[in-house]
């Protein structure tokens, strides 16, 4: 059954790539002209990546992967979407960079990639597509060199408790929810006026599940930070802050969390 869910998601993301690549949010022309797609959180966390090997999980159409490549890392990006990987490869060639891209389910990464990396990286809207984080954590450990760093920055699980489809956020879903959440709606976060129908299966994971998946796989947690500002204005009624990020008016709950861990 989960393979059916993944297939629905793959088809949806193939359609999203076509829309996102033309959207103001992803601003592909500015990216081609040298603008980095990376945000403050990940830049501060990973610092100078020159000469390091980096595996980017769930890379969409490769902008962040290629931004790390521009910063001097030797990168491999993986994603479920055929259209995403096709576009990523095209951008890599157009920009004369040296990243590699592989089309696969993130949980099958170790079946498709055998090398190990200094850094494994993933960001923003990624783990909600996975039903179980234990194989995800195991895969991350398999793909890291000893002493290598895993870094993720992700929307906080509290954010995923709300349904945003009716305009006003309504608390609908469990903080930890084993059963799949199915949503079907018009548009996509990068272009809400698009006529595409997004069909998506997702799962909610609490922070304890994320941490335990990494620890059980043999990683040492360096830090967990919860942050009340998001670099993306993708939720209703967020306000721009002095830092250029976005926050809720009352800042009653975090929007983002970040984890850095080391393979011991």
Automatic annotation (TrEMBL):
<feature type="domain" description="Methyltransferase type 11">
    <location>
        <begin position="56"/>
        <end position="151"/>
    </location>
</feature>
<dbReference type="InterPro" id="IPR029063">
    <property type="entry name" value="SAM-dependent_MTases_sf"/>
</dbReference>
<dbReference type="Pfam" id="PF08241">
    <property type="entry name" value="Methyltransf_11"/>
</dbReference>
<dbReference type="GO" id="GO:0008168">
    <property type="term" value="F:methyltransferase activity"/>
</dbReference>
<keyword id="KW-0489">Methyltransferase</keyword>
<dbReference type="InterPro" id="IPR013216">
    <property type="entry name" value="Methyltransf_11"/>
</dbReference>
<keyword id="KW-0808">Transferase</keyword>
<dbReference type="GO" id="GO:0032259">
    <property type="term" value="P:methylation"/>
</dbReference>
<protein>
    <submittedName>
        <fullName>Class I SAM-dependent methyltransferase</fullName>
    </submittedName>
</protein>
């Amino acid at each position: 059954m989960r393979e059916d869910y993944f297939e629905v998601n793959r088809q949806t993301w193939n359609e999203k790539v076509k829309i996102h690549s033309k959207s103001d949010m992803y601003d592909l022309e500015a990216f081609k002209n040298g603008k980095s797609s990376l945000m403050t959180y990940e830049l501060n966390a990973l610092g100078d990546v020159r000469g390091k090997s980096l595996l980017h999980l769930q890379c969409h159409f490769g902008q962040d992967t290629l931004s790390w490549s521009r910063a001097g890392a030797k990168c491999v990006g993986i994603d479920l979407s055929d259209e995403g990987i096709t576009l990523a490869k095209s951008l890599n060639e157009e920009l004369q960079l040296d990243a590699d891209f592989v089309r696969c389910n993130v949980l099958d990464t170790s079946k498709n990639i055998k090398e190990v990396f200094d850094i494994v990286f993933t960001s923003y809207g990624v783990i909600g597509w996975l039903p179980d984080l234990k194989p995800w954590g195991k895969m991350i450990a398999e793909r890291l060199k000893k002493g290598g760093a895993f870094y993720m920055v992700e929307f906080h699980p509290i954010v995923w408790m709300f349904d945003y489809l009716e305009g006003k956020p309504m608390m609908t879903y469990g903080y930890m929810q084993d059963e799949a959440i199915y949503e079907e709606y018009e548009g996509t976060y990068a272009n809400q006026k698009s006529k595409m129908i997004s069909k998506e299966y997702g799962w909610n994971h609490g922070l304890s599940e994320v941490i335990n998946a990494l620890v059980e796989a043999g990683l040492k947690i360096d830090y967990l930070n919860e942050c009340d500002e998001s670099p993306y204005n993708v939720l209703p009624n967020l306000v721009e802050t002095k830092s250029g990020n976005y926050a809720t008016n009352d800042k009653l709950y975090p929007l983002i969390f970040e984890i850095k861990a080391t393979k011991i």
